[in-house]
Amino acid sequence: MIKKVRPHVNQNEPLLFERSSPGKRGYQLPPLDVPAVDPAAALGFQNTRAEIPDFPEVSEVEAIRHFTRLSTHNYAIDLGLYPLGSCTMKYNPRVNEQVARIEGLAWAHPYQPESLAQGIMEVMAALEQMLAEITGMDAVTLQPAAGAHGEFTGILLVRALLQSQGHPRKKLLIPDSAHGTNPATATMAGYAVQNIKSNALGMIDVDELARSVDEDVAALMLTNPNTLGVFEEHITRIAEVLHAKGAQLYMDGANMNALVGIARPGDFGADVMHLNLHKTFSTPHGGGGPGSGPVAVKEHLIPFLPKPRMARIGNRWSWNYDLPQSIGRVRAFYGNVGMHVRALAYIMAHGGDGLRNATLDAVLNSNYLRVLLEPYYDLPHKSPTLHECVFSDARQAKRGVRTGDIAKRLIDYGFHPYTVSFPLIVPGAMMIEPTETEGKAELDLFVDALISIAKEIEETPELVLTAPHDTRTSRVDEVGAARRPILRWKPAPPK
Amino acid sequence: MLRVLGVDSLDALFSHLPPEVRLNRPLEIPSGKSEYEIVDYFRARGGECADGYASFLGAGVYRHYRPVLVDTVVSRSEFLTSYTPYQAEISQGTLTTIFEFQSMICQLTGMEVANASMYDGSTAVPEAAMMAIRLTGRDRILVARSVHPEYREVLSTYAQHQGMLVAEVDYGREGGAVDHGDLERKIDDRTAAVIIQSPNFFGIVEDIRRAAEMAHSHGALLIYVFAEAVSLGLLEPPRDADIVAGELQSFAISPSYGGPFAGIVATKEKFMRQMPGRVVGETKDTRGYRAFCLTLAAREQHIRREKATSNICTNQALIALMATVFMTVYGKQGLRELALQNLSKAHYLAGKLPLRFTGPFFNEFVASTNSPDAINESLLQNKIVGGLPLQRYYPELANSMLLCATEMSRREQMDTVAEAFR
Fold first, then answer.
1. Burial group, residue B175, by CB count within 10 angstroms (0-12, 13-18, 19+)
2. Is the CB of A49 less than 8 angstroms away from the CB of B312?
3. H or E element at residue A389
4. Are strands B384-385 and B54-55 parallel, antiparallel or unpaired?
5. Domains of chain B
6. CB–CB of A108 and B305 under 8 A?
7. CB pairs under 8 A between A and B
8. DSSP helix/strand/coil, B256
9. Among B223, B232, B57, B10, which Cα is nearest to B124's?
10. What chain A residue is nearest to B149 in terms of C-alpha separation?
């Protein structure tokens, strides 16, 4: 009996703690070149611990095998199409990883003298300038660590501006198609949320908006193109309606991959926006981060930007802390600088033309999928779409098969699923964003897979309802996990 | 593909955009560069930083050796280029390592649950404070002045508009630890939490048990903050704290001019439903095999929207994986030996310098000097970056600098620093 093999090519792999045996080690430290200090004497006996109970003890080869085996249990963009809508899973060029590890950049301490940090500051300044050009805005802060952190920063800027005019106002308008981070951000910034309904075209109804905007509204948080992939065609009118009442237009830049080189938020009325470097600018998602969420603003919001700001003094860069109107810091130090290095490398490799071409290809790929899949899946909004498209499971639901089931079946065909059940305004949503990374061959395979699944649902729905079948791990009991949370490993109780 | 779409040009895909929103010129960004030119550009920028210098800076960012295995693992495409593990069946690699990460953070800190990561230590602190406010129904936070000054600045930015009232507790001018008398004067039954860092910004190890007793006797929670994670290889874990908010940069995460790092929030089981951020739990698949998945999502923004515990979405997963590999490579013996080396090096250097505070310290300490800037200038001549002058953060500590020694500090470099103080 071969104990360790599952009915799949991958091996089983125990947890580190189960692999562990006393005395094993995978590290080497040089001999101490100073006298050893007794911790109990230096720190006080009551402040010191004897050991870390149950902490792993494995050899170097056991460690590398453990993590390498676990890695094979993951899907990744380097293995194939990763069409998660609104997540912009594009190829992450490896040169970006290499340059981020260049010694002088990777080992720069945030408090080392400015005279010895000019190179890294120059990188950040160049990125700020290019992001301002791409967005059509006047200034950029790189401090926020991710998209949601950028939203928080941007809304605090709005709040500080309105406060400086006398009153911060009370609420934010947020379309019903928005990401969950938008309303969660509003709460953290002390604003109430008022939802705005989308119309049948999947856009904001400008008349309804005009009725909702009053002196209590601080801003509209708008994703454009929105989460349906639809460009808000009345965007300049929307901005006018807001500005007429002294409110600001916040743009969520999650979908900026549809616009780079084609249209600039700063030109169509946005006052403040964030970018996700881990989406549009290709810094790797890393299984859920790190991201980076720069915030770009128009002139009137510059005084409120987080401190410190980089300033050019003579021929060198310097950090300026003397910013009396600043909202303060949103993070220690200067941001996820390692991601700034990668994003700048990406922009440099593409150049202005290349960035625009990437946008064209991303929109082409999405529309190609839309046209080929429309005969098989319900497309609730018929408006033209840009970088992503949202189908619904309405036809398949009649056979008892939902979007989540179709997603799991796609895994058997070798693809990562689309985004499931989002945006919330489309019941049973299937949100597809292929990005510019994919060639026609990969897209055709994906289309074939979804057409084949549509047929399976007609003929053998059970096959889809119990998917995935060909993975190392079959369908996971998420309800059980939440009902009885086991959030850490514990040693087995002594028998 | 255009034929399938029935259009004759790529630009036609944008024909529905109103003409006034279109950009009618090329972006003013230089044309694309080759890989060689890009590497060359960044090498030149790296050369303009303190490449090849020794450094005695700490203050929240520490120079520790990064075992080669760390980058070997995080460079695996399957970890580097995967998304947040919402599709558990094809994300077991990421999910398993996060579960191991959460388990090791609990072992290190003495807590019962830990999240999958926060952006960094500085943002973990306000998230922990917001959590304490939800748990106690109170609105006042007391934060020690010996908590990292930039963490306190971030706390105040977050606090402003949520009705959170933040007051500071002073440090003892002699010992450099929290002034317990000042804490006793300021704490009352409106205090939601007391926030203390150990080792604190001056490197001093705090008396957590006493702080916890004082907080608890007023019905407040104790939030323990750490910025130097290696210290937990030797220090008694903060079991008496209610919430731990920490920074893991010391665990094989490059200084990288201040980020990306990885923060954590850990707590007791009874508080877990108010914890911010993603969490991985153990479950089974339909064949009965052990499996892992994201769980307790009812706390999070994509489900709860404006009622979520935090707006955090993308966190620092790959950086948390670096810390996981680091903890695995060093393991039980190694983390202790590493911490002992840090302790020994710092005490060697401190033994040669006039110390500002008398309290016990780990790998960082404040030295007194009338001329911190002159000392640092002279050290730069020897390709050594000295300590951090404290005047900017603590005007009363103008004649002092914060120095850190780690396992990477060599004896002769430390002797040179001592020389400069003469």
1. middle
2. no
3. strand A389-392
4. parallel
5. 54-66+330-421 (3.90.1150.10), 69-325 (3.40.640.10)
6. no
7. 651
8. helix
9. B223
10. A332
Distance CA B228, CA B323 (A): 13
Residues of B in contact with A339 (CB under 8 A): 259-260
For B6, nearest residue in chain A (alpha carbons) = A371
Q: Return all residues near A295 (Cβ < 8 A) that are at least 6 apart.
A: A140, A141, A143, A144, A150, A153, A154, A157, A272, A273, A274, A275, A305
Architecture of domain A95-348: 3-Layer(aba) Sandwich (3.40)
According to DSSP, the residues that pair with A299 across neighbouring strands are none
Cβ–Cβ gap A148/B313 under 8 Å: yes
Longest Cα separation, chain B: 80
A119–B302 C-beta distance less than 8 A:
no
Mean pLDDT across A245-273: 98
CA angle B27, A257, A196 (to 5 degrees): 115
Q: For A406-443, what is each residue's pLDDT tens digit?
A: 999 999 999 999 999 999 999 999 999 999 999 999 99
Length of chain A: 495
- Which of chain A's residues have a Cβ under 8 Å away from the Cβ of B237? 49
* Residue B302 confidence class, pLDDT cut points 50, 70, 90: confident
User: In the structure, what pLDDT confidence band is assigned to residue A493 with cuts at 50, 70 and 90?
Assistant: confident
Query: CB distance from A24 to chain B under 8 Å?
Result: yes
Q: Angle at CA A231, nearest 5°, toward A229 and A236?
A: 155
CA dist B194 and B186 (Å) reads 10
Tens of pLDDT, residue by residue over A320-344, are: 999 999 999 999 999 999 999 999 9
How far is CA A260 from each of CA A250, A351, A371, B319, rounded to the nearest angstrom?
18, 12, 23, 29
Distance from C-alpha of A269 to C-alpha of A237, rounded to nearest angstrom: 9
Which residues of B fall within a CB distance of 8 Å from A476? 88-89, 283-285, 291-293
Tokens of B408: 């990477």
Tell whether B342 is within 8 A of chain A (Cβ).
no
CATH of span A351-481: 3.90.1150.10
Q: Which two tokens stand for residue A192?
A: 């109430």
**pTM for the model:** 0.97
Return the ∠ at Cα A187 (arms to B152 and A389), rounded to 5°. 120
Q: With contacts defined as CB-CB under 8 Å, which chain A residues touch B308? A: 180, 184, 187
From chain A, pick out residues whose CB is under 8 angstroms from the CB of B148: 332
Mean pLDDT of chain A: 96
Q: Do A58 and B49 touch (CB under 8 A)?
A: no
